[in-house]
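User: Teach me something about this protein's shape.
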Amino acid sequence: MKPVKIGLLGLGTVGGGTATVLQRNAEEISRRAGRGIIVDFAATLEIERAEELGLEGLRLTENAFDVVNDPDIDIVVELIGGYSPAKELVLQAIANGKHVVTANKALIALHGNEIFAKAQEKGVMVTFEAAVAGGIPIIKALREGLSANKINWIAGIINGTGNFILTEMREKGRAFDDVLAEAQALGYAEKDPTFDVEGIDAAHKLSILSSLAFGIPLQFEKTYTEGISTITPEDVEYADELGYTIKHLGIARRTEQGIEQRVHPTLIPKTRLIANVNGVMNAVLIMGDAVGPTLYYGAGAGDEPTASAVVADIIDIVRVMTSDPNNRVPHLAFQPDQLADIPVLPLEAIQTAYYLRVCVLDEPGVLAEITTILGKSNISVEAFIQKQPKVGETKVDIILLTQRVNEGDMNKALAQIEALTVTCSHVVKIRVETLK
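Assistant: First, the predicted structure itself:
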C-alpha cells in the first residue's frame, strides 16, 4: 500500500517537532497506522529550516496554498496558527477533499462550527487534539474514552504561562509583573502576553472542551474570561492561610439552567491534586457520572509534546481513511444532528463561593457593617481573617470566605460594601471551587 503523503503548513516550533517525530519514529508509526506516512511538501517562509531539521528531499514553498492545492497531498497539517489565512487554507483543503490536522485552538474555537460542517459535506476528517493542552490526549478522552458518561463538569489548568506565573508568586512571594518579565525572557510568554494572562487562550480551549463534553455548538463568544494580572502576592498569601491555592482555571459545568463556561482565577483547596500542578504544566479534571473524577496531566506546549498530539491525529486519520464517513468518530463527539441547544449561562446566573478582600479604615464596628450587608443578601460567611494594621497605617485588610451564592446577588452586595465610607478601595473578588 502506498504511503500517505503529508503537507505541512509551517515549519516552526510545532511544525519542526512534527516533522522530527514523523521521521524519527517512522517505523513505529507505520506499524501503528498500517501504512507508511511521509512528509512530502511543506510551506515555510524560512526555506533553510528544512535543512536544519534534516528533511532531505522535502518539497518546499513559501505559498501555503501550493501545498493545499497539490493533488498528491492526502493530509494537510495546519500549524501556522491565528485566524487568517489559516481559516482560508483549511477550508480550501477541505474543498479539495483533503483531511486536515490542526493545532490551532483559536481557529477551532471561532470557526469550528463552519469548518466541521464543510468537512461533513465533503466526507473528510478534521482533527485537533493538539489544540488543547498540548501533548495531553484530552480531546480523545472526551470523544472516545469517556463516551459512556454524562459529563457533569470540567476544570482545567490549560495555559502554562499563567500557571507558571501563579506558581512563582505562591512559592517565592513575587509580584505579577516581575514573574511575567521572567516568563517572557524564558519564552513562556509572548512579547504581547494578553492572550495568556488575560485568559483568552484558555477561553479558546475551554469552549472546545465544553462542546465536546456537553454536545453543544462551539460558543467562544459566550465564555466569561478574566485574567490574572490583578492577583497580588497578598491574595496568594491570604488564600494559603485559608487552605487554598489560586489557579487560573477554565471551568465548564452542566446545570439545570444551562452550561457554565468561564475562565478566571479560582481558589481551590490545597488538598486537591490539581492544586499541586505547578510551573508550565497543564492538567484537566473531568467529572463523569459513571467513572467519577479523572485527571489528565502533562506538558501543555513545546515542540515534541505538541507534535505527539499532531502525529497521533495523523495516525487516526490514516487508520480510517477508507472507512465510511458516517461511521467515524464525530468532530465534536456527538453526531452533528444531535448537538443540543442548551444555553450557555451569563456569569450573573452562576453559583459559586467567593474569596473577598476588603480594604477598610481601622475603626470599631467595620466588620459588623460588612457582615450585616452580606447577611441581608443571604450570603453566609464561612471563614474570615482580620489583619492587624501595620505600624503607622490606618487601613487594614479583611478577608472573607463565603459559601456558595449567586454571582448577581454577590455583585449587588459588593456594591453596597464599596459604598461604605470606611471602605478604602474596590473589593477584590476571587471565585472559589472545591471541585468535589
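Now, about its shape. Residues 257 and 372 are 30 Å apart (CA to CA). The domain at 145-299 is CATH 3.30.360.10 (Dihydrodipicolinate Reductase; domain 2). If you'd like, I can walk through any region in more detail.
User: That's plenty for now, thanks!
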